[in-house]
Amino acid sequence: MRVPETGPVPLEDALADHTAVVFDLDGVLVDSNELKVDCVRDALAVFGPELVDPFVDEFRRTFGRTRREHFLAFHRDYLGGRNTGRDEDFEPFYARYAGDYAALLGERYAKAPLCAHADRLVPALAARGVPLYVATGTLTPEAERLLGWHGLLDAFRGVLGGEEPKARRLSGVVAGTGAAPHRTVLLGDSRQDLLAAGAAGTAFVLVTGYGFFPPGEILGGPGGPAGKEVAVAAGLDPRGLVTGAVVAQGPGQAGPVNAEPRSAP
Asked: What parts of the sequence cross the membrane (predicted)?
């Protein structure tokens, strides 16, 4: 999503100009990133900190992948499993330890509070008739329960969970609307969200405040759509002003194109 040449605009107005608005869940709607880190660390604790600690660092860097992708990475890269994810060793590993993770998440997820202003922005967009979706690495039933606990589930036309990669979920939303991909926008807080939007061809808003890494690291990492302008929002305040930044070629600070995000009067 490009910031107009006239300057920053309020987040609600910028989003309402799209055919569909897709929210990431963790770190955008719900303050649950660190809760998930604790769950994955506890689920894998039996393997010891010498393996689990570096994997937790990777979990943070690749936050937003599907659950299967995360556990496959641990099995393959830290336990020496084969790389297909379909061998006879991985499936029982996944059933046990991803099951333990899901159980811990089930116990703790309800304690995660909404991110600031989520309870204002989502109803405001729904009231304007904007089609809203959630695309998340969290499994669909878990995400629906969490949104239901917070009273937001009915605002969304679809909750698209981590049974499929996020880029595929975005492509499904685009296909369902029949509009050009750039008319759909994803709000995310991670490098994986940026990459998913790039793969699906949708617009992207980087939401700051709850993610693991600062904007420069998210927008300056390898493999992204270098030179593309994306929008940046300091949280979900509907009147907060959306600014812009350019995705860098590689690691380093992405270049700002407008002033820092701030609240509109």
From this structure: none
